[in-house]
Write a structure and sequence with these properties.
mainly alpha; about 70% helix
Length: about 270
């Protein structure tokens, strides 16, 4: 066996092992969602349920109003994803293709927001939201997330390689800047926009702390915080909790599978690979 074949087998074996390690918890979660609480807490554990129980999925909505949290999350996260993707694209376009005073300072501020830990700003952000009366309002979840330093940086890198000849040709034909961005730049850089959208969707969907702080009304709460309601004061309904968790993972998987190709191409074109 030559070295090339050996290394190929070694790499594939490593990747398979990593895939098994990564997928095993999810498979266990899925199968456990069909178990009773007694079986989940039993000392002698088995991967497959002794008897498949579908009542856990029924209780998710009948006892915990889970679909209300799910719907709230879809509305908020979809809004945040669309708005952040748009603002990142247009800001990245301006920073990459226009020359103006304080351009370097503006980009430096964007970079500084990426370096500043999120936990450092959470307390002042909370007090600002409280002072302007946005507690228990989705504005507190949507508007602060409209601008993403990472998204702006990623789109700027993506658009640095966009040919200026397209812009000049459009201007010669009489197109204004609004038309150029929305009809030329945006459609030709869809991969970068979709990459930002995936990142933002994942971050917003799994965010727990910020919704927990600014939303206190149960009927307005999002799914990440809603899952906590399955932990009772004296006991936890693990079967329903696992079933709810499985359902909450589905949108993440669907979004990634639909946009996987564009995501990879967008990351490559932004210069963030490796």
């Amino acid at each position: 066996m030559n070295k090339k074949v050996f290394y190929k087998i070694l790499i594939h074996g490593f990747l398979i092992a990593m895939a098994v390690i990564t997928l095993t918890p999810f498979i266990w979660l899925l199968l456990s969602s069909f178990k009773s609480n007694l079986e989940i807490l039993a000392q002698n554990q088995t991967l497959f349920p002794k008897e498949f129980i579908f009542s856990n999925y029924d209780k998710v909505n009948t006892q915990f109003n889970f679909m209300r949290y799910f719907t709230n999350s879809v509305i908020v996260v979809a809004t945040v994803t669309v708005m952040t993707s748009y603002t990142s694209a247009i800001t990245g376009f301006v920073l990459s293709k226009y020359n103006f005073k304080l351009k370097k300072l503006a980009f430096g501020i964007v970079m500084a927001t990426m370096m500043l830990p999120w936990c450092v700003t959470i307390i002042p952000r909370y007090f600002i939201i409280k002072e302007i009366g946005w507690l228990n309002s989705y504005k507190a979840l949507i508007l602060p997330a409209m601008f993403s330093g990472f998204g702006i940086f990623m789109m700027k890198q993506n658009l640095e390689t966009f040919p200026n000849e397209f812009l000049e040709a459009a201007r010669i034909d009489g197109a204004n800047e609004f038309f150029i961005f929305h009809r030329i730049v945006l459609p030709m850089n869809k991969n970068g926009v979709f990459s930002i959208a995936i990142f933002q969707f994942l971050w917003a969907w799994e965010d727990y702390l910020w919704p927990y702080l600014v939303i206190t009304k149960p009927e307005k709460q999002l799914i990440a915080v809603g899952l906590k309601l399955f932990n009772g004061q004296y006991q936890t309904d693990y079967g329903s909790l696992f079933a709810a968790t499985v359902i909450s993972i589905i949108p993440v998987i669907v979004v990634y599978l639909l946009l996987q190709k564009r995501f990879v191409e967008g990351i490559a074109s932004s210069g963030l690979k490796g």
